[in-house]
Structures are given as structure tokens and as C-alpha cells.
Design brief:
Helix content of chain B: 40-55%
Strand content of chain A: 5-15%
Shape of chain A: globular
Organism (chain A): Tumebacillus amylolyticus
Number of helices of chain B: 3
Oligomer: heterodimer
Order of helices and strands of chain A: HHHHHHEEEEEEEEHEEHHHH
Distance between the termini of chain A: 60 Å
Structural class of chain B: mainly alpha
Shape of chain B: globular
Radius of gyration of chain A: 21 Å
Domain Acyl-CoA oxidase/dehydrogenase middle (chain A): 117-209
Strand content of chain B: under 5%
Distance between the termini of chain B: 25 Å
Order of helices and strands of chain B: HHH
Structural class of chain A: alpha+beta
Number of strands of chain A: 10
Number of helices of chain A: 11
Pfam family, one (chain A): Acyl-CoA_dh_1
Domain Acyl-CoA dehydrogenase/oxidase N-terminal (chain A): 4-113
Family (chain A): Belongs to the acyl-CoA dehydrogenase family.
Chain lengths: 382, 86
């Protein structure tokens, strides 16, 4: 069995050889070839956080974060596959699945025999699962699902969907494992996107889909408080590290460029203004990585503060990544405006992090509540 | 010696989202219906009791009413402790 260090080195090598040279081409062609995903799966990288018994690599949360960074630095869309397949769906199955569900789905997910997507958002509903309009009705044969999902990463090629729906009568939210092969399931690939063009985003149409009783994940009605909240929490942890990844890649790109680009008779890295951008990016990035490592340790300990700290890390690193990627474009000047250089793509990809798995604005009220609970002077209440 | 109910009450109080200083509740008040906690609290409470009392809550017990009052939470913990030590 490989050590975590060996796995991280293998991830770095895979990213270097298979992902970074092609990341721009994946984006231009708006897909990651299945063959590349197959080779990723062969290394166990679609199940990096799964236990060994399900074909996983058994990385702990800190190690999994570092792994996410390695993949994310080289190719944001491949990192996005890992976020939805491993973090959102895989971790949900691990936490809430029955023994039979785990035995059935997780080894196939680990081998890449099936890809999984998390189907929460809809044309008129974001990350607030209480508002989903996809409905279910209990029948003798199973649960009858109707509705439409939108913005679902990798839904265009996924074989399994974790669908969040609400009871047509009571509004109770429940999670269902829905297979693409089921009658009434169809997907439509989305295009014209700012970024994540290789992430196979699609809409999912669920028309009279009968889901067997054994495909309910968790309890009936337990979808919001437990399944969605914990799934998004895993997603946010992955996105927090994605911010570190994009910022590091952006910093590497701008430092490399600044060491070779000459203007006014000297290298641009010799200008104070460029050094200020480099230094500020480095400071912000170090702070973000320290925050993510701290959150990883809380998650490893299953600490009850891990969820709120994960949201804080997601908000901070996504904002930091946007700032660093913006500064990277600035250092590249006119060239930063061109897709011939990677910072153009990194700039677009950074923006997405501030939106997915709950926008920064959705997370801020929860963070503010923690501030009001923990940061006030005792005994000074009105 | 701190009772289980006092421990639970203390945890809930440290996670209240009402700040006017008048958030009083009895051991039988439904903290969700009162609006005293936010949407993340159900998962936070689950993590807390699984860690603090070294137990695992089965999916079947993940009914929000089991976590809605101090009394119900303590009853659930004692039930699980009884079944896991049996």
C-alpha cells in the first residue's frame, strides 16, 4: 500500500504529464476525454478519500486537500470532477449510505466504471435545497420523480446522479440515487459558459422517473438537514483547496513571466510595482493554505466547528484566488488578455469558485452569526 | 458534576443565532421552531454528540425531532449508549 506522500507524488506526476499540458485544450474543446479520466481512475484518484475496502486511497482530510491542490493546479475541470464525484457524491454515500449501497456503488466509482454528479441546483433554485421544485411522490414501485436540474457539473457524461427532490405534498427534502439508464432521464449539455467549459455541465430532465425504494440515500425527509448540508460541506472543502490551487498556479505563472519579460531595458520582476503584486499574492496564498490545513485538521478530528470553518475557508480562498489571478493577468499585461497564456483561463476559473457550492454572499450570514456569538465583549449586551 | 442535559444545553447556547439576550428555552422547547439555531445546526449537533459521547447515530434516528429539544437529544444519546453497550 502506498503512503500518502507517495500518492501525492504520483498525483503531482500525473498532473504534470497528463493534465497541465492539455488543460487549455480541454477547455477549448469543452471536454475532458474519457481516456484521460480512465487513466486518472486507474491511479485510484477518483476515490482518493475512500477507504481501501471500497477501492480508495484512504487519504485523510488534510492529505485529500493537498491532493486536490495538486490536481487543481494543473486542471481545474479535472479537479471539479473530483469535487463532484468524490467529495459531493462519494463522501455522501460513505456517510449516509446503507452497507448495500456502499458495496454496490463505491467500488464502481473508485474504478471509474461510473461517474457521479450532484444534482441540487435548478433553473430557479441555487444551493438552498429547501426551495427545490423537483418533486417526488411515493408509489408502490418506488418514488416518482419529476423536475429539471441545471448547472450540474459532469452531468453530461455522469452515469449516476445524486438528485435532491422535495415531497410533492409535504415539501420534505429527500436524496435519491438516480441512474442515467433509468427511463425518463435525459441530459442536455450547457454551453456558452464563462469557465468550467470542460466540466461537462448539463441540465438534467427527470420525466416520470421511477426510483426504486433502495435508492433513497439516508432517511426520507432527511435530505436537507443532513445529506445536502454535509455534501455541500464536503464540496466547500474541495473548493477551498481549489482556490489555493488556482492562486498557486497563477503565482507560479506570474513569477515565471516576470523573470523573463523585459520592459524599459530590464526584467519586469525588477520593478517595485510588480514585486508588490508578487509579494502580496504570496502572503495571501500562504494565509489561505494555512487556513485550509487548519480546517483539514478539524475535519480529521470530526470537530463540530469544522463545517463553519470550512465555509470561512471557502469564502476566503475563493476571494483570494480571484485577486491573485487578477493580479497575474495584470503582470502579463496584454498577453494576460490572450488565451495563448494560462492566466486568462485561471482568471475565469477563479471567478467560478466564488459562486459554486453556495456563493460568498450566501455563506456570509452564517459566518456573521458565528462572529456575533463568539467575538462580542461579554456582559456588554444592551 | 455536569449532567448530560447541562452539556447539551451549554452546546446549544453556544450556537444560538438570536442575540438580543432574551433567548430563553426550557429542556422541552423546540429550538428549531423557535428559530434559535441556523440550518447548519443539525449537522453541528450530530457531530458534537457523536464526538462528545463517542457514539454513532444511525440514519433511522436522524429525525429532526430527536434533535429539537434538550430532553429529546439526551433521550436519544441514552438510547444509543444502551444499545451499543448491550
Amino acid at each position: 500500500m502506498r503512503t500518502a506522500q507517495e500518492i501525492l507524488q504520483a498525483a503531482q506526476a500525473f498532473a504534470e504529464e497528463e493534465l497541465r499540458p492539455q488543460a487549455g485544450a480541454f477547455e477549448a474543446e469543452e471536454e475532458i476525454p474519457r481516456e484521460v479520466i480512465r487513466r486518472l481512475a486507474q491511479q485510484g484518484f477518483l476515490a482518493a478519500s475512500f477507504p481501501v475496502q471500497y477501492g480508495g486511497l484512504a487519504l485523510d482530510p488534510v492529505e485529500y486537500g493537498l491532493f486536490t491542490e495538486e490536481i487543481g493546479k494543473a486542471c481545474n475541470s479535472m479537479r471539479e470532477l473530483i469535487t463532484v464525484h468524490t467529495s459531493l457524491v462519494g463522501e455522501s454515500l460513505l456517510r449516509w449510505g446503507t452497507p448495500a449501497q456502499k458495496e454496490h456503488w463505491l467500488p464502481k466509482m473508485a474504478r471509474g466504471e461510473l461517474l457521479a454528479a450532484f444534482a441540487l441546483t435548478e433553473p430557479d433554485v441555487g444551493s438552498d435545497a429547501r426551495g427545490v421544485r423537483t418533486t417526488y411522490v411515493k408509489t408502490e414501485e418506488g418514488f416518482l420523480l419529476q423536475g429539471r436540474k441545471k448547472w450540474i457539473s459532469f452531468a453530461d457524461i455522469a452515469d449516476l446522479f445524486l438528485v435532491i427532490a422535495s415531497d410533492a405534498q409535504t415539501g420534505e427534502v429527500t436524496a435519491f440515487l438516480v441512474e442515467r439508464s433509468q427511463t425518463g432521464v435525459s441530459t442536455t449539455k450547457m454551453s456558452g459558459l464563462l469557465a468550467s467549459k470542460a466540466s461537462h455541465l448539463a441540465e438534467i430532465d427527470l420525466h416520470d422517473v421511477v426510483v426504486p425504494h433502495e435508492n433513497v440515500l439516508g432517511r426520507i425527509g432527511g435530505g436537507f438537514s443532513y445529506i445536502v448540508n454535509s455534501a455541500l460541506d464536503h464540496g466547500r472543502y474541495s473548493i477551498a483547496w481549489a482556490g489555493v490551487a488556482i492562486a498557486q498556479e497563477s503565482l507560479n505563472a506570474m513569477a515565471t513571466y516576470a523573470r523573463t519579460r523585459r520592459q524599459g531595458g530590464k526584467l519586469i520582476c525588477e520593478y517595485d510595482a510588480v514585486q508588490a503584486l508578487l509579494a502580496d499574492a504570496h502572503v495571501q496564498l500562504q494565509a489561505a493554505r494555512a487556513l485550509c490545513l487548519s480546517v483539514g485538521r478539524l475535519r480529521k478530528d470530526k470537530h463540530h466547528e469544522a463545517m463553519i470553518q470550512t465555509s470561512i475557508a471557502k469564502v476566503f480562498t475563493s476571494k483570494m484566488a480571484m485577486k491573485v489571478a487578477t493580479d497575474a493577468v495584470q503582470v502579463f499585461g496584454g498577453n494576460g488578455f490572450s488565451n495563448q497564456y494560462p492566466v486568462e483561463r485561471l482568471f475565469r476559473e477563479a471567478k467560478v469558485l466564488e459562486i459554486i457550492e453556495g456563493t460568498s454572499q450566501v455563506l456570509q450570514p452564517v459566518i456573521a452569526q458565528q462572529v456575533l456569538r463568539t467575538c462580542h465583549h461579554r456582559g456588554a449586551e444592551a | 458534576m455536569t449532567t448530560m442535559e447541562e452539556q447539551i444545553r451549554s452546546f446549544i447556547k453556544s450556537n444560538l443565532v438570536v442575540f438580543a439576550g432574551d433567548a430563553v428555552f426550557t429542556d422541552d422547547d423546540n429550538i428549531f421552531e423557535l428559530g434559535y439555531v441556523n440550518s447548519l445546526f443539525a449537522m453541528q449537533m450530530l457531530s458534537y454528540i457523536e464526538n462528545e459521547f463517542a457514539l454513532t447515530v444511525d440514519n433511522d434516528d436522524l429525525v429532526i425531532s430527536n434533535f429539537a429539544t434538550v430532553t429529546n437529544i439526551a433521550t436519544l444519546i441514552r438510547k444509543i449508549q444502551g444499545s451499543q453497550s448491550a
